């Protein structure tokens, strides 16, 4: 029980520190928002998140990897994706965002290739 409390406390602390760095960032073209999501368990979850991310007008491509719990979103040329909006969309759909990251000089296709081990 004590360890559980400790875990909850450290998660709460992370949640306070993380947004300051990654949450307010924007994702430009040739960058990918790489989000680690807890709670996705089946292809239906993946499809739902894919749909939600695709609804944003700035979204060029979306890829969801269930095994690695990764959601990758790419912006259209000349447009910016708001990391806070990406996170909000995933949270509103009922999932937990564990980590947000902006990967530069990449594409959703490249992230997909990396995660699936195919080139
Ligand atoms: Cu599901």
Features:
globular; 6 strands; Alpha-Beta Plaits; alpha+beta; 4 helices
Brief account:
This protein is 45% helix and 29% strand. It has four helices and six strands. Copper (II) ion binds next to helix 2.
Number of separate helices: 4
> What is the distance, rounded to the nearest whole angstrom, between the alpha carbons of the first and last residues?
45 Å
Task: Please give the order of strands in the largest beta sheet.
Answer: 3-4-2-6
Strand percentage, roughly? Answer: 25-35%
CATH fold node name: Alpha-Beta Plaits
Contiguous low-pLDDT stretches (5 residues minimum) are none
Mean pLDDT: 87
Ligand inventory reads: copper (II) ion
Number of domains: 1
Q: Percent range for helical residues?
A: 40-55%
The CATH class turns out to be: Alpha Beta
Overall spatial form: globular
Spell out the helices and strands N to C: HEEHEEEHEH
Quaternary structure: single chain
Structure description:
45% of the residues lie in helices and 29% in strands. With 119 residues, the protein is α+β, with helices and mostly antiparallel strands. It has one domain: Alpha-Beta Plaits (2-Layer Sandwich), CATH 3.30.70. The strands form two sheets. It has a four-stranded antiparallel beta sheet, sandwiched between helices. It has a two-stranded antiparallel ribbon with strand order 1-5. The termini are far apart. The model has no long low-confidence stretch (mean pLDDT 87). Copper (II) ion binds next to helix 2.
């Amino acid at each position: 029980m004590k360890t559980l409390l400790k875990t909850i406390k450290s998660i709460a602390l992370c949640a306070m520190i993380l947004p300051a760095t990654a949450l307010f960032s924007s994702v430009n073209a040739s960058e990918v928002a790489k989000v680690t999501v807890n709670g996705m368990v089946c292809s239906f979850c993946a499809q739902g998140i894919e749909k939600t991310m695709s609804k944003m007008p700035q979204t060029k491509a979306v890829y969801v990897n269930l095994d690695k719990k990764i959601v990758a979103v790419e912006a259209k040329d000349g447009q910016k994706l708001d990391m806070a909006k990406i996170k909000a969309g995933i949270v509103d759909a009922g999932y937990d965002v564990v980590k947000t990251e902006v990967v530069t000089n990449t594409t959703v296709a490249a992230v997909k290739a990396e995660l699936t081990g195919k080139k």
